Amino acid sequence: MAKKDYESRTEAMLMPIVEAKGFELVDVEWVKEGANWYLRAYIDKENGITVDDCEEVSRALSDLLDEEDFISENYILEVSSPGLDRPLKKEKDFARSIGKDVEVKLFKAINKEKEFVGILKAYDEDTVTLEMEDETEMQFKRSDIARIRLAFFF
């Protein structure tokens, strides 16, 4: 089974669990780090996710995964908050972030720069537009973006 299959099947199993609790499913990922495989689910809610919330969802998901048993590899299941620096991946992430500061990291440099911070002004399936500090706009092809996430200044 492919990575996308693991992620999509897990997401389908997880949606009823998080919706019943009034949570949002932010993302599911299947990744290998070192010698270990990880199945990670990121959940959120309006005032933030607690450790108890993560534990409840993890137990319910773990039971379903044991029943379905579609993952042949050994893996570690993690359920957590996406954190403050959550990446923008889905349509709802971009919509929620319009007008907010975001950080864009590119695969290849533009004018010797790979990282840009600006206000997310617009997006579509092919591009992302930021308003820069000098009030000019920069448009990036989504295929050129390695990572885009909310920017926080401390």
Major sheet strand order: 7-6-5-4-8
On the 0 to 100 scale, the average pLDDT is 92
Classified in CATH, the superfamily of the largest domain is RimP-like superfamily, N-terminal
Helix and strand string, N-terminal first? HEEHEHEEEEE
Poorly predicted ranges = none
Shape: elongated
- By DSSP, the count of extended strands is 8
Question: How many helix segments?
Answer: 3
Percent strand equals 35-45%
What is the highest CATH level, the class of the largest domain?
A: Alpha Beta
Question: What is the terminal-to-terminal distance?
Answer: 43 Å
When the domains are counted, the total is: 2
CATH architecture of the largest domain: 2-Layer Sandwich
Major sheet attributes: 5 strands, antiparallel
| Helix fraction bin | 25-40%
Assign the structural class, choosing from mainly alpha, mainly beta, alpha/beta, alpha+beta, or little secondary structure: alpha+beta
Radius of gyration: 18 Å
Instruction: Give me the CATH fold name of the largest domain.
Output: GMP Synthetase, Chain A, domain 3
Defining key terms:
single chain, 154 residues, alpha+beta, GMP Synthetase, Chain A, domain 3, SH3 type barrels, 2 domains, three-stranded mixed beta sheet, 3 helices, 40% strand, elongated
